[in-house]
């Protein structure tokens, strides 16, 4: 059974067998910004073994895409068997147990084996040493159970093999590729170094295996070959009932500065583990989110979401070129390690309020490759900077233009790479929010303003004048809703592009802001004043139309009864979605209008938001993991706190509750987790910036007692506690800060307090 725990609370997630092992390994992934590594997983399937280790920045020419992140081998237990007979230990009938301890950032597994009537128990505990090191420690205990039984001489093989490989588009196991090969290895008594070559980089693994119990005797021998390097540890149970081993390994790009004596000196795993636990205690004090509710599943779900975000982000601020945030982090090769708009609209929002330097690193990645965006715009007939819909580690366009299915031998056209035009505006939105929260004028002067201007230049080049509408239009596009393409005037796309232009126009007279020509300024103003936005009337209220002509499409069966996971009405809908077909009904994957209203809550009246929410939500499948967060935000703004809480739970527990576990390959949905945080903080607490100051409209769902979170604002770490509707406490350290209610009902800090 895979379980997650935090302190005294523990929840079982899934039974572990060959079919579920890849899912369990994914959920229990340990990571930092440098690497993501799967834990030891009992009953591991071939798919589970295929993804073992992902390193940030290690990519290669892809299968089906231009580049993909490489699935690499990780040092692990490879085999457990009898020395004298060669027979493997057979799993006992007891179900293996794997526990991901969120508060400790460790994964522990326990499984039992039997051999000739003797039972043994294998316990493995793994953790990543530090947020800024690609180093992993593992504690291994093999124990003979029972008394009066004859012991065996057992052998445990620990090392690196070549079973890791990439699947086609990160999801299809019928076509795989291995992007590495083993080079030279150097072995001594307790450790080995192994070179792993990829097409672009030379990696070095330093692996150490040591006996942890000096009273037990063991013999270590080594095998080297074309398929890796293995340490064989002989464990004699004739005199002792338990053997304990510790392993420690590091991996990184090999260079002249890498010395062969990496593990020189004493190796103290207890000290390393103590530092690890101390670090995570500090991280949780700074970033913990707590939901006090009768059932712990909501609280554990949110803690799991925050844990995975913290793992993948903290420490990512190092380096001048910024950091790419793969869609699945370092948990899976799905989406090939490319980044999408969810980084800016969800993950960036989490980091802006939790660790702004991480958000800045994500934006720095965009700026580093702005020349690529300028080239991409020119190559597709536009001006300014067009950031790709799927952007790889080199800033290039990385989406598959065609998808091959097997065994049907069907080739499907993927239109999003050509027709999604809102990405640059999304990047501008993140830049603007970062500026509003941090007040980082130096960053804006050095790069932020350039991003805003070039994104606005792109937006202006996208709009075309329509004589028939007497307005500027954008035809043949795809919005965030991927069920409809070739559509005209996506409300979301037109609105975001217009906002991008208007934001720059509002800054042109600001001292230090780069100027544009008078002719260009007049053109941009004319475009911004005359953008076509489609509206429809629903129950007497005018609401934004998903895209021009959407309301004229045949209606779909409404999703009135809510459930976890995608709400397909039948297999026909599910099959059409899998085949990337253009839907001819009002069914949407995720409601673009709800997302837009969550981003600009003050731009739409409460009546419009309520009518639009009530209209689009029952027509939304929520197949995208990005869908729940915006719905949670808007529901909270409408006072529908129970609905908001439900969407928060769905987002935070996206991978825990309803993901099909059989032969899983999809990876963790980090942006859904960020969306859950947004639902809680931007939605229920009503967090906003008003005249450069924090402002809240706190609401508490009736079935919750309270909720607490932290945020960083203008250099200060604050702890926010929502104790009831319009009842909120703000603390800085041990001091409660005085608050006041504004004329509009928002709660903020009293004047004179930071």
TrEMBL record:
Domain Glycoside hydrolase family 65 central catalytic residue range list: 303-678
Q: What positions does the domain Glycoside hydrolase family 65 C-terminal occupy?
A: 689-733
In this entry, which stretches build a coiled coil?
A: none
- Annotated region Disordered: the residues are 733-754
InterPro entries from the entry?
A: 6-hairpin_glycosidase_sf, 6hp_glycosidase-like_sf, GH65_N, Glyco_hydro_65_C, Glyco_hydro_65_M
Q: Please give the PANTHER family that the UniProt record associates with this protein.
A: GLYCOSYL HYDROLASE-RELATED, PROTEIN-GLUCOSYLGALACTOSYLHYDROXYLYSINE GLUCOSIDASE
Q: What protein name applies here?
A: Kojibiose phosphorylase
Species for this entry: Pseudomonas tensinigenes
């Amino acid at each position: 059974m895979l379980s997650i725990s935090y302190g005294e609370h523990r929840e079982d997630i899934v039974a572990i067998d060959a079919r579920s092992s890849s899912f369990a390994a994914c959920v229990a992934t340990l990571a930092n910004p440098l690497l993501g590594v799967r834990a030891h997983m009992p009953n591991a399937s071939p798919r589970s073994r295929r993804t073992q280790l992902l390193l940030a920045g290690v990519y290669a020419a892809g299968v089906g895409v231009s580049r993909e992140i490489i699935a690499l081998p990780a040092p692990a237990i490879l085999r457990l068997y009898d020395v004298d007979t060669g027979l493997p230990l057979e799993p006992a009938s007891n179900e293996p147990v794997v526990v991901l301890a969120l508060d400790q950032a460790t994964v522990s597994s326990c499984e039992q084996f039997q051999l000739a009537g003797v039972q043994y128990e294998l316990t493995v505990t793994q953790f990543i040493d530090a947020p800024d090191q690609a180093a992993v420690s593992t504690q291994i205990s093999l124990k003979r159970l029972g008394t009066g039984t004859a012991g065996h001489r057992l052998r445990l093989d620990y090392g690196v093999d070549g079973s890791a490989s990439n699947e086609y588009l990160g999801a299809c196991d019928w076509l795989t590729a291995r992007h590495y090969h083993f080079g030279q290895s150097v072995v001594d008594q307790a450790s080995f170094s192994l070179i792993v070559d990829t097409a672009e980089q030379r990696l070095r693994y330093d692996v150490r295996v040591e006996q942890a119990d000096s009273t037990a005797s063991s013999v270590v021998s080594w095998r080297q070959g074309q398929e890796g390097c293995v340490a064989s540890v002989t464990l004699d149970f004739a005199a002792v009932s338990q053997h304990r081993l510790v392993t420690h390994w590091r991996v990184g790009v090999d260079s002249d500065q890498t010395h062969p004596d990496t593990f020189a000196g004493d190796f103290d795993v207890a000290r390393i583990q103590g530092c690890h636990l101390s670090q995570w205690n500090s991280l949780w004090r700074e970033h913990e989110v707590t939901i006090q509710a009768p059932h712990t599943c909501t609280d554990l779900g949110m803690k799991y979401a925050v844990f995975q975000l913290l793992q993948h982000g903290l420490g990512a601020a190092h380096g001048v070129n910024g950091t790419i945030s793969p869609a699945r982090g370092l948990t899976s090769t799905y989406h090939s390690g490319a980044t999408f708009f969810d980084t800016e609209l969800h993950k960036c929002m989490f980091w802006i309020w939790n660790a702004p330097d991480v958000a800045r690193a994500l934006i720095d990645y965009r700026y580093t490759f702005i020349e690529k965006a300028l080239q991409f715009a020119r190559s597709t007939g536009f001006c300014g900077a067009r950031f790709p819909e799927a952007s790889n580690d080199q800033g290039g366009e990385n989406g598959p233009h065609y998808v091959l299915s097997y065994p049907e031998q069907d080739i499907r056209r993927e239109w999003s790479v050509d027709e999604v035009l809102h990405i640059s505006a999304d990047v501008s939105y993140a830049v603007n929010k970062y500026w509003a929260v941090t007040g980082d004028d130096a960053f804006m002067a050095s790069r932020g303003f350039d991003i805003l201007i070039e994104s606005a230049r792109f937006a202006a080049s996208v709009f075309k004048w329509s004589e028939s509408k007497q307005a500027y239009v954008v035809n043949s596009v795809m919005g965030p809703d991927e069920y409809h393409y070739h559509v005209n005037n996506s409300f979301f796309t037109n609105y975001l592009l217009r906002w991008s232009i208007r934001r720059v126009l509002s800054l042109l007279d600001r001292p230090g802001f780069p100027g544009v020509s008078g002719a260009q300024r007049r053109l941009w103003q004319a475009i911004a004043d005359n953008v076509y936005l489609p509206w429809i009337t629903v129950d007497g209220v005018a609401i934004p139309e998903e895209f021009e002509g959407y309301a004229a499409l045949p209606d779909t069966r409404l999703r009135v009864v809510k459930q976890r996971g995608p709400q397909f009405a039948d297999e026909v809908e599910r099959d059409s979605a899998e085949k990337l077909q253009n839907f001819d009904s009002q069914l949407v994957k995720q409601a673009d209008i709800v997302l837009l209203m969550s981003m600009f809550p003050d731009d739409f009246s409460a009546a419009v938001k309520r009518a639009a929410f009530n209209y689009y939500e029952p027509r939304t499948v929520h197949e995208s993991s990005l869908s729940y967060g915006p719905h949670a935000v808007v529901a909270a703004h409408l006072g529908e706190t129970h609905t908001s809480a439900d969407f928060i739970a769905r987002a935070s527990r996206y991978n825990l509750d309803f993901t099909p576990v059989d032969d899983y390959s999809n990876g963790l949905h980090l942006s859904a987790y960020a969306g859950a945080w947004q639902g809680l903080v931007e939605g229920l607490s009503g967090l906003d910036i008003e005249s450069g100051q924090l402002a809240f409209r706190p609401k508490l769902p009736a079935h919750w007692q309270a909720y607490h979170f932290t945020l960083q604002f203008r250099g200060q770490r604050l702890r926010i506690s929502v104790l009831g509707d319009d009842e909120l406490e703000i603390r800085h350290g041990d001091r409660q800060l005085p608050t006041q209610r504004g004329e509009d009902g928002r709660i903020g800090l009293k004047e004179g307090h930071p």
